[in-house]
User: Fold these one by one.
Assistant:
Number 1:
Amino acid sequence: MIPFPGPSKILLILFFTLIWGMIGSPCLALGQSQQYPAQYIVKYKAGVSAEGKAKVINEHALQKRQDLQIINAQLVSPAGSFRAQSQSSLLEEIAKDPAVEYVEPDYCLYPMGTPISQDADASLLWGLKNYGQSIDGNVGVAEVDINLEGVWQVTEGNPEVLVAIIDTGIDIRHPDLSHSIWINQGEIPDNGVDDDNNGLIDDLNGWDFVHDDKSVYDSASEDAHGTHCAGIISAAHDLLGVVGVAPGVKILPLKFMNASGGSTSDAISAIEYAARAGAKIVNCSWGGSDSSQALQDAIGGSDMIFVTAAGNVDSGESPKDIDDFPLYPASFDLDNIIAVAAVDNMGNLTSFSNYGYNSVDVAAPGKSIYSTRPDNKYGFLNGTSMATPYVSGVAALLASTGINDNALIKQRILDSAVHNPLSSLSNKILTGGMVDALEALGINLAPTASDLSISGSLYPGEVLQGKYIYHDANQDPEGNSRFEWYRADSAQQDNLIEIPGANLLQYTIKSEDIGKYLCFGLIPEASSGLTPGDLVLSDAVGPVEAGPLISLHLLDGSNDLLSDFRPEQIDYQLNIDDSLSSLALTYTGTAQSSVSVYYNQLLQTEDQISLDPEGDTISIMVQTPGIADRCYTIELYRNSIDQCFIATAAFGSKYEPAVVLLRAFRDQHLLTNNIGRSMVALYYHYSPPLAQYIADKEGLRVIVKILLTPVILAVYLILHQWLLLIIILLTFLLALRLSRIRKQRV
């Protein structure tokens, strides 16, 4: 044991602390906003002017402290009063500014020989920061610790997060613990009344289930174990003694055992109390070899995370594999349990720690652990009991960042240990590693993107839609992620070239993309994250084709000959098959003038177009890179009038309602099937001479009009089937009426 420092030692500590602060300690009393100035590095996007940077400073009430020209950034700080808890919202607002690429705190960097905090005995806290210092006679290995230092730049724990310590009692008046003890707001102190109606009188700071009273601390001999665990979790971040993993959270003392142990029933009662009080994490630095279904049901039915000890063996015994020799509650197969083994300051599984590949999840510091002891004292203890509160503290920090899902908190802790492996733990515990706070909170993890895909048709004018899944280990929502589209020569993305201006999640295919492969890239960015993620590319799609048949246009200058057909202009026949693509044909001047053909708005070269000697047929060879050649034919007819319809000759104009009706029937019912198209082709081939003859004879035109009347009427009824149904219905009713009249006459 190390005695509590006397007045002279305290004065000496304060003196040197003051001198250190005067000569420029970069991070004095780290985490205390009144002593640590809030400073941030704002990285601007390329091209932001000096005026734009000044606008950012003004709009977010900042003051510039320094230009960091090498990275196009500035060191800034809030211009007015500032509370530490407003840091996250300020960073989020700055990060949303369109001129800002990212923003991050002005992190403190430390020499490896510096303790994690200014607490008097912080150099002994190797579990929080191991820089190779000698602990209790054993020289450690640098960085064999829970990697906590960077986490405190983000959170030291939220007082709304409650950690229940179900254990022996806790000395709640210890100066390093008193600040963190839970207070029952529903209870009036010492009035002898059960104010909150929970069956317990004056339970202001928890309950003693051993003695069934409100005192959660009885003596140093009974309550040393719980007091030591409490300090590891939440000892105050100040100038005295030690500091906990999460000094900002609250702890709930629930005494169910003394130095000689406790009952399962009292443990279950304590679990029930913790749940009612709103605890998120339960620290269980105890266990037994007897499996209790009741205890398992109490833990499994709870909405809390239980961090449990893997257990110790006595000196001279070999550690046990609790897969074969279970220890409970660590060996319960429950999703809300995290079982913890102990390592020393050199990264070795301690000689007393149990293990189990299936039963033990992670490891944590457990040998020569310096923490709070009763009666305002401090001291070393060994055991998986000491390793367990390290993990409880990390779980509390995760909960303090707003992560409420138990499964996610557990997975983050296990994943962090996978990324912090120790050879001594390989095949001994599930993750093979020690918990890593920085990794668990994902503070250094930029957002990522996966499952990038593209949907849409590969033709000019079509819109491609990019899709992806956004991931952020910090649970930050997505911000202004950046997109770029690329053109390549192959599916392997050879000669990948960025398409200028294509920086949205949608991309409209251009004519120059024909024959190319397309993909999109994404740089994921969080709305309040510190740095953007890496560029991720989708698979390429392609090649882009010219496109399926959408429309046919015959253009004379700006006139569409199909919609504004006049005498002495051309008509057409198009041989269509399923693979035919869109054509736009421009006809200018006289019948012998040249013909320009546009294939999906692409002008075809002369060697791809052939005109027959009579000028009646145009053949078009469409050649697209990477696609088989296709040949299409258009037949043209040129005469002084529109000869394709006899009806046009009879009525004198194609704009007459009767002629318009017949043309609609042709387009809607004949040209939509092979038989109809053949009939139209045959009719167009033989009708021109007869149409010319009819047009020249006024009397013949009248006769043809009369003869076409029933045809026009039939076509009208076909195109207006509702009218045909009405006529059929009226005819039926009339026939029915006439039949009844006949019967009455008979």
Note: The chain has a mean pLDDT of 81.
Number 2:
Amino acid sequence: MTPAAGPRDLWGDAEHRPLVTVARNVSTRYLAIAIDAIIGLLLLPFNLRELGPSAYGLWMLTAALTTYFSILDLGFGGSIVRFVAHYRARRDARGLNEIASTLFGIFSITGCVAYVVFLLLAFNIAYLVKDPAEQATARSLLLIIGVYVSLGFPVSIFGGIINGFQRYDLNNVVGICSSALVALVNVAALLAGFNLVQLVAATTAIRVLTYVVYRLNAYHVFPALSLRPSLCQWSRVRELTGFSVYISIIDWSNKLNYSIDAIIIGAYISTAAVTLWTIPQRLAEVLQRLTNQLNGVLLPMVVDSDAAQKPERLRAIFIQGTRLSLVSVVPLAAALALLARPLIHAWVGPHFDGSVVVAQILIGVVAIRVGNATATTLLKGAGQHRMLAFSNAGAALANVALSLWWIRRFGLVGQAFGTLLPVAVTSIFVLWPAACRRVGLTVADAFRTAVWPTLWPIAVMAAVVVPLRDALPTRLWSVAITAAAGALCYGGIFLAFAVNRDERQAYMAKAFELARARRRVAAAA
């Protein structure tokens, strides 16, 4: 199809100001992450106190069930941004609308199927929730949350169009406002004496209303958007499927690896034990979100370098991306691991001491995942997505088997090790060597260049954190001060001694360049 010409305001102008676009999208993304983290930090102990461990654990168990419904999109959800960006670059409005309409039709059917599954789960809840007194509540929660999750499938088209036009900032701002409003309704509902079902109904209503804003923004970003049954094309389904099938395998594997734990704990121990697991899981999720934003930006660069047959550039992306990913996650992970006990005691109380070791293990899982994220991005973007998909699937199956085996012997710690071991083995012994081979490096050379400079400063950092941890009181402010001191120490040692002068100057120049771009964005706003 011949690309259709269109006015600049129809297609946006992100390509004319790439650094400003990156600064705008990244800064609002981190703002959204920070606000979500603060809200979660404040709401968790409040909700736990108002609802009690059993009710809160039941809420988290039903929420964990919903995370598996994304696998129903069969990988099409991971294809939206890629195909929208592709047809936008070609200025092909009809092609973009055919892709969007086809996906909207697929996701509308998927949403209906999803709610049928919610109904089946709700009326067979006894298989997942042991306590008969909690089964009616769990059933109501599933029926309410199911509305939001099922509507989310077709509505995801609008968010994908916004992201495909490089307006991540719009979705980020909507997410920030939605999170803040949901938090306010949450607090007001519990203070007014709402029970768990009423609370979830109120917060879900706010989230559903947010969908309207995403739709309005999609038509604002792309005024020519048209979703019509006549634009649904079978040829577009085949085009989408060639990419989405492997994305679906990766997505299913990730769900098994990182979201099945609460379900296993609820089935084999109790809903109260789910609460003990939720505390360290929240810490790990925040760490993951804070440190893994780089690799979404690297994917198009990897694809471009591979297509242009530029092995030197691909090798540089792998080395520098791995190093920067590790620099972002290692100091925070080390600080959280060293400060896990005072942090949990100050946050939710000493009666959650059983969550400390679990938190340290899950933090290690995140450190490995983020540290190896550039390798997985390279494999996905440089033609080895099939190997990545099947490796992730193997790790997921091993995770399930080990978790089921070890939770009976070692409880929550066994569950955590059941997650850690497959992730570590797959990342270190399968995906990392495969990425090294892809860029023409030996494992030893890649480790020496990209990994070792980020690891040894931990020893100096620990020498600062441990004495402060033991000297200061068990308060959130003292944990924050100690973590900040350790992170600053790590950063100073890394820049001063772990990298050479040319690399240090390059990092500083890029940091100043991005800071100037962010100031221009703020001034324009």
Note: Residues 14-249 form one domain.
Number 3:
Amino acid sequence: MTSAKDTSPAMRWLENMLLCILLGLIVLRTTIIETPHIDQLQTRLFLSSEIVSLLISSLMLACVVVWLLVSALRGQLRWRKTGFGIAVGVFIFAGILSACFASDKRAAVTDMVTLATPMLAGLFLVQLLTSAAKIRLALLLILAVGVAATVQCIGQRTVSNETLVEDYEADPTAHLNKMGIEPDSMEHWMYEHRLYSRDIRGFLMTSNSAASFFLLAVFAGLGLCLQAVGKKMSQEQLAALVCYGLVFGIVLFGLFLTQSKGGIGALILGLGLLVVLCVFGKAIWKRRLLFGVLLLLLIILVAGLVTSYGLEHGRLPGGNSMLVRWQYWQSAATMICDQDVTGIGGGNFTDFYTHYKVPAASETVQNPHNWMLSLLSQYGPLGLIAFLAAVLLPLYKVFAHFYADSHLPGGSSNSKRSNIWIGLLAVSAVMLLFVRPALVDTEFLYQRVDVRSAAYIVLYLIPAGVFIFAFILLRTASLGDKSVDGHNERLAIALICGLIAVLIHNLIDFALFEPGIFGVFWLFVAILIAPMHNTVEKAENIIILDAPKRLGLWAGVAIVAVVYLAIALLPPMRTEGYFKQAMGDDVNRIKLIEAAIEADSLSSKTAYQAAGIFKQTYQQQVNKDRRFLEKASDFAHVAASRNPADFKPWRLLGHIQALLAEQAEGQQKEKYLQKAFDSFQEAISRYPGSGKLHYNLAKVAESLNKPKIALGHYRKSVEIEDAYRKQFRIMYPDRETIISRLGETNYTQAKRKIKESK
């Protein structure tokens, strides 16, 4: 290893291009609803949400691969020490380990890719952010997205939410069909509840998600303001400060528009921490061991008080959201105690949650709404420790840089005028104007061409225009900001407080792991580390690659790329291609579905969907063809074998076998009923808190002439429904009608059966 400055124009051009692409993808992710484990979104996508996430992640990884291969060709690799590279590697290892033992291995692989990619991008961005000017542009991009998100929130508050309500009220059935929601179901009520709550969510999934993004943008804007303030300010510097202040006010307004109590509370705590660090930072650093121990004791004390309150009252202090969060946490804690040290696997929480779900709880969830419990349950202790190290080590390094190495000179802005901002703007604009709308199936949502054109203007053109205007304004104003060459302690502290505020907020939410927010989170970490390598006195660390090392690097990259393509990316893409083709080909549908199932041996989703489709086709037929049910049964068995923890394939099998029993007679009928009974038992073992499953099992038990067993499950279904109704009244005391989870007819019949037995 040697020290030298890499001045190759070609390499600088390549790195600038990769930086533009990487930041453009981060901008894209902050403006789409990207949920890799949930296919039912508030917008319909041409591709499944899983494929969208994998493609974006793959493009980000491709940037890293290109950089490594070009470095190998040149015979030298410039690598800046980040302080969190080993921790990221350990986290990836924990993800691979948990995926090996996961029930849904496809979900585990996808989740690991989705989480690991932003962390790897953070490592890579440290290598690319080679000047203070580039760092400034990256922050300005996020602020420009924040301005566009605020405009989106204003539109939702004043127009679009009301339009959505009007569309629903005009034709509820058609509206629900667009959303893929069954009328008069629990999902229908929950959607209606969210609809009338008029959630202000910006570009993201929920108001809490938008609040987490705004927290990062707010502290970025505040940091730029604090950094720009000086004793003697020129007119250009003052103009830059005014512009920063204006944008800071806009994104702060956006945060308050979300009305996220957790987000606003985290903002207050983050601002308090900012004041403490700005005033007492050096004193705290000198006594960091003492303050570290005190902070750890404080965390233990708060955790103990929260747990004690929850155990005593069966909820946390606050509104309905805190009641259900305690239930999530209870279930997650029990899950963690029952699992191996490897965790259940990323993306597997929803499959295991039903095993531990409190019967009174109204919904199943994808995440425990606490990032620590989420990591601990899915990635095990090793994953949680690695994540904490990846976050805390860079923060420690930053404090050491400013408080122990404060003699180092400021960063070099490479103030020679660069046009990289044009590339950043161009790539981001392409993402917003073309890629973002291309992901949405507008022909499905809006049949009329004129309506689709209007929707494009409102949903895509205007937000992109706001983003472009805000970025150009910020970039122009920032040219007069000379603080970019200074000792940027206040900016760094503000960014650290933003990261901590997001972590605090997500102790009661799941937004952190949404790819858009996770990407910005690790961009901020990179922005904190990169300036330490941009100081005047520091040179680049260049690793000279001789022929064996070069060959080793090529071989390593090739092996990782092949494994990634073979396991993570190509199987789900082939499966989706076959499945979409099957839906449009009645003649070869079965063969194509079988090919889709075979293409991805890790996934149970396609087999489960196919089983549901064939069952539904059978039920819609006038002349019932039992071959559809038999094929549905085969597919459901495949789904159950590929995801042993999931109750849904067994529930579906129970319904399929009950339908087969309706067509059979004698011993054959009893055989199918016994199979249905066994299937519902398997489902209940995975979801004991489901009143519907107990009711279904009771009905089958009656048909098998097992009255005592039937009565027991009728009682259990009523017990679960009563617990749910009691909590419903607590949560919604002003609502006269209780939305039955069991179904009013089933509930009445079950109570009648119990009464008749007495």
Note: The two ends are 85 Å apart (CA to CA).
